[in-house]
């Protein structure tokens, strides 16, 4: 689940509903071996249903702004 707050989670036994799942096939190569596995991307915890309810707004990670200064 992308953009989830660090202190938000689901518990073993919770029922998750994913209304708009996005299936992605991950393929990675490392030291001559290929690893592949499917994953379901969920862009926000607020798009889930946990035990039939939407998570609270606090489940969403706060926005962060990062700035750099390149003097050249």
UniProtKB/TrEMBL annotation:
Organism: Psilopogon haemacephalus (coppersmith barbet)
Tetratricopeptide repeat protein 5 OB fold domain ranges (all copies): 1-62
One Pfam family recorded for the sequence: TTC5_OB
Annotated protein name in UniProt: TTC5 protein
